[in-house]
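Quick one:
INPUT:
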């Protein structure tokens, strides 16, 4: 196949091309880094890609999603399947195979692709129209990239039968690497989403009182997030010494720890954070545990440096010789592993997990957005966590949803009034802990 290198696309009038997260649509101009996508496809030796996942379609279309199927994508006995066809080095041949109802979106000029077909109704006919487009452009293809986890079996069978001379290759990794590099507009959306989630949590903490159930707190948090313009995704909640994170009729009592871990979607991007509170005063054990968890996580947040393979191997040997680090009060050994998943943030709920062997050696680019929530299991105190977001930059790092400076400690009253005590930690820790960054909140039971 002869590949034409993607030029530096310019919008009409010489304006800069649209970037992911901006929401701008320029006909014929990809709203993403087409040169980087071409390079990733070339690395995978793929001539074209046929995407069928919601997150890939949203990213390649510049943030567009069809609201009719936001909450459920079933259509009778089939389902909604947005298909984007992209030929490496030829954005002018890109096509979007849309549902019939999306003709109204097309009339409003919301698609940049030169070809838009609002004709599909099932998974099978969506792929059939994608095959017809590939055959119509007349470009010989050897290997076509697909997303197997997001390609229904009936559609996959049609794709194999319709392209018998092409090898179908999994390009989910390449597409995820494309989405991992965040533009300034995407980082701004992630920060807005994070701050809205944190504000919703603080308002929920203010409504805490002895006797309130976990289910009632989750519903209150949902209302707070929706009222701030977020699409509520989920809430994992623990209370007391239990580690069950499901909403239930369990009541929040005096001295209990409350952990809220929630995600809310803002313009397609997810803010996902955790905050904790204590009904009353945190005891010495909780303060010690916070210090231990904070020390571990602050070490992990240090700006990453690209080191040689030899230095990485040497560090792994030293860590293995030293043995596992123990958190005071935490259970260790088989069956007491931490519930932790380091992952990035973006349009996917849990994109690009980092602690997997197949990702070894693939460092994310500067500009990505990470979260790493360690959750050691404790005998008495329940789960103790810190969870925040960080953004990697060439000139430093900032965590979405946080302000620079010391920890801001909160005091909550029974009547719902919030007093911002503003108590910072020792000066040696100022600048390390962001405001509201997982410090146990004091939910006071004193009368207001």
């Amino acid at each position: 196949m002869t590949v034409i290198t993607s030029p530096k696309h310019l919008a009409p009038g010489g304006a800069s091309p649209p970037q992911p997260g901006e929401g701008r649509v320029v006909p014929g101009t990809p709203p993403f880094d087409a040169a980087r996508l071409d390079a990733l496809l070339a690395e995978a030796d793929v001539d074209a890609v046929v995407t069928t996942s919601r997150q890939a379609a949203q990213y390649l279309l510049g943030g567009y999603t069809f609201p009719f199927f936001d909450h459920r994508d079933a259509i009778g006995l089939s389902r909604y399947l947005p298909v984007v066809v992209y030929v490496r080095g030829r954005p002018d041949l890109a096509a979007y195979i849309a549902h019939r109802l999306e003709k109204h979106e097309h009339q409003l000029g919301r698609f940049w692709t030169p070809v838009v077909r609002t004709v599909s109704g099932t998974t099978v006919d969506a792929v059939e129209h994608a095959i017809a487009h590939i055959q119509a452009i007349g470009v010989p293809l050897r290997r076509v990239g697909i997303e197997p986890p997001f390609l229904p079996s009936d559609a996959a069978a049609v794709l194999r039968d319709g392209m018998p001379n092409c090898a179908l290759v999994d390009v989910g990794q390449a597409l995820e690497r494309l989405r991992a590099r965040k533009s300034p507009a995407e980082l701004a959306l992630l920060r807005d989403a994070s701050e809205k989630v944190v504000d919703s949590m603080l308002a929920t903490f203010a409504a805490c009182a002895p006797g309130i159930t976990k289910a009632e707190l989750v519903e209150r948090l949902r209302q707070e997030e929706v009222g701030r313009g977020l699409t509520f995704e989920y809430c994992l909640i623990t209370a007391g010494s239990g580690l069950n994170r499901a909403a239930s009729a369990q009541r929040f009592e005096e001295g209990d720890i409350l952990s809220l871990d929630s995600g809310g979607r803002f313009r397609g991007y997810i803010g996902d954070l955790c905050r904790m509170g204590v009904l009353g005063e945190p005891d010495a054990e909780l303060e010690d545990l916070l210090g231990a968890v904070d020390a571990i996580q602050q070490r992990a947040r240090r700006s990453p440096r690209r080191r040689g393979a030899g230095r990485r191997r040497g560090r792994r040997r030293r860590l293995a010789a030293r043995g596992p680090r123990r958190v005071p009060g935490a259970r260790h050994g088989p069956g007491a592993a931490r519930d932790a998943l380091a992952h990035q943030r973006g349009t996917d709920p849990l994109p690009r997990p980092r602690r997997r062997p197949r990702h070894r050696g693939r460092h994310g680019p500067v500009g990505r957005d990470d979260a790493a929530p360690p959750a050691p299991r404790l005998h008495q105190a329940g789960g103790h966590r810190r969870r925040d977001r960080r953004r990697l930059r060439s000139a430093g790092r900032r965590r979405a949803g946080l302000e620079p400076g010391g920890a801001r400690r909160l005091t909550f009253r029974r009547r719902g009034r919030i007093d911002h005590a503003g108590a910072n930690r020792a000066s040696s820790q100022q600048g390390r802990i962001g405001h509201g960054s997982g410090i146990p909140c004091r939910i006071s039971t004193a009368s207001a």
